[in-house]
């Protein structure tokens, strides 16, 4: 058990230190924010507690100060009473108006201070005349009435704070306006629940000692509950800060992946109709993987693909689309996959006709939904009637189908490859 604590508790201390350093950055711009100050105090107290909880550190502190079990007192004061009050103060300022939050925070801090004074007094009286330190202070001394009262007060102060945190997080998490604040509150509630399990375990150990049982047999629950609790508490209480940044990075990554998936379709259209490119410099190979502002480049790519499809519409033969529809239906395709396959085969045929300088098969003005016997134009118009996200989703279906058609249609693939190797310069609109 000592080996497990020697690994878990230092790791928890490091986690608290990282959270403290992360939130310290906000102190430059929010020096008067009581919630931020409370979080800094909470992370600092928890970090000190987990450091003292490391068996070798606790033993060294007792030996250095020459006071038996003073490390245990520090663990309980910093990690239980002080940190729970500080965490609760931060949450109170999150969910209540400033004036109401100040009153509630002062009441909780006063209660925590009274508990701390009482604990120090009981610990000092219980330790009078002690010659040796206890490796497990609460468990090895729970049979003593004064230590038992000390344990009850400690568990009550720590557990009450966790219960209040759970109540506030669950209550206000349901109505929180900001998504990442809501997620942070729920995550914090999970962490407080794990800490509450630790409190119940300590309370159970008191009953076990009085019943002649050895609570050290399930002491593994202590590092597990504390480690889980601090992990979720740190994540939840910092989530409103890093959550939006994470969402932004996820959006950028998603846009980059979408950009790469649409690029083969765009490249084929650009080779056939270079005028669609607003900035021909973005047509190079390197620009594909270093697009710069990816959100803007994706938006431009979607517009240019639409322009390219519109320019090639006169070359899309209805007979080709009808044959493509029959083949897709026979292959079991339906919905967007079927429409995208029809569009892709019509596009491949149009690219081949454009490359071979064949005359258009129909006038662009006649390519409305009412003339849609090929199934291509109507689906495209349906997609563009939706929002930007729907249009991107539709073009992804088309790009996927285009790649599949190009892979199976050897002549078209060679024709498209030759056309792709064509001019790379175009007019700037």
UniProtKB/TrEMBL annotation:
UniProt region (Disordered), positions on chain: 352-386, 406-429
Composition skew (Basic and acidic residues), residue ranges: 353-365, 407-417
InterPro entries: DUF6545 (IPR046675), MAB_1171c-like (IPR050039)
Segments traversing the membrane: 6-24, 36-58, 70-94, 106-126, 146-163, 184-204, 224-242
Acidic residues bias spans: 371-380
UniProt KW keywords: Membrane, Transmembrane, Transmembrane helix
Record's keyword annotation contains Transport: no
Pfam families, per database record: DUF6545 (PF20182)
Protein name per Swiss-Prot or TrEMBL: MAB_1171c family putative transporter
Organism annotation: Streptomyces sirii
